[in-house]
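Closing statement on the magnesium ion sub-project.
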Amino acid sequence: MNFLNNVEIAAKYIKEGKLVAFPTETVYGLGANALNPLAVAKIFELKERPSFDPLIIHIANIDQLEQLVEKTDERVYRLAEKFWPGPLTMVLPKSNLVPDIVTSGLPTVGIRMPNNEIALELIRKSDCPIAAPSANKFGRISPTTADHVKKQLPSVDYILDGGKTSVGIESTIIKLTDYGFQILRNGIITQEELETILPFDSISVIEKLSAPGMLKSHYSPKKMFLIANNSTSKIDKSKAGLISFSGELEAGYSKIIRVSETKDLKDYAVNMFEAMHSFEDDNDIEIIIAETVKEVGIGKAIMDRLRKAEFSWRQA
Ligand code: TXA
Ligand code: MG
């Protein structure tokens, strides 16, 4: 496996139907030519991802959007104008060009233009839109560095190393309805920001779908992972690592990772998955505890990730 930063080589691999892990501003993606069903099938295989979980397609210009969707309307252009390139995925009716394997047979496709120069250059040089989920094994912690990708997917054909990602959690996913937009997955772009462009649809029922935002368990470390509350205050802190935000819970913990020096929720998003990886890799740590935040603004996306990472452990 290569670990070089050569976009030319990576693009050649994409054209040959191989898989390339690449940085975006959110997390690293595991990319393939979105128009090549055989290449896309390799993503599901390497990630051990169930075939019912559809992929996002990454584009570098608006022409590509128009090829991939059945129809656009002016709302899509307004959102694109404001938030692209950036961490917003729009779920739209797909065109015939999009292979069914990408959308898991759904009539819609998720599309975003990432705000990362390496990602955009890769898409341009590959001369095709790139389908990419996060570059981790299904259900496990998302990667925010090339090392995280290497840890979980050592046999990927190529990894483009763009350093640590700048946002740290996955894109906000929205769906457009007759009344406005619905949020399928929370991210750094908040409901309030989206509402400056379009009304939030609180009327339509959200379709039960397999957005990871909708699976109860996801983003999970291999070690016991719990959200801090009254019961976790009684655990043996000498074997526990704390993901700390406010600094107020730190007493007694064997190891602490402070995710923000200034209590900024954006820093929590940027450093959360890295902190999970770091404790997962630390032999002295048996339990990982994460501090909660208020569920407003970006806090919604952070708590969503923490709850899903905790889910299977809470059941245990
Ligand atoms: O920030 C991100 O979105 C990252 C980077 C790599 O772009 N990608 C990412 O992909 O998080 P992934 O596959 O880990 O999560 C994307 C989720 C899928 O699990 C799927 O459920 C949802 O987006 N999705 C994709 N297409 C959809 C569709 N047509 N309808 C509903 N949900 C969809
Ligand atoms: Mg993912």
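The pocket of threonylcarbamoyladenylate (ligand 1) is lined by residues 24, 26-27, 29, 53-56, 87, 89, 91, 103, 106, 108-110, 114, 132-134, 170-171, 173, 184, 209-212 (CB under 6 Å). With this model delivered, the sub-project is considered complete and its resources will be redirected to Aim 3.
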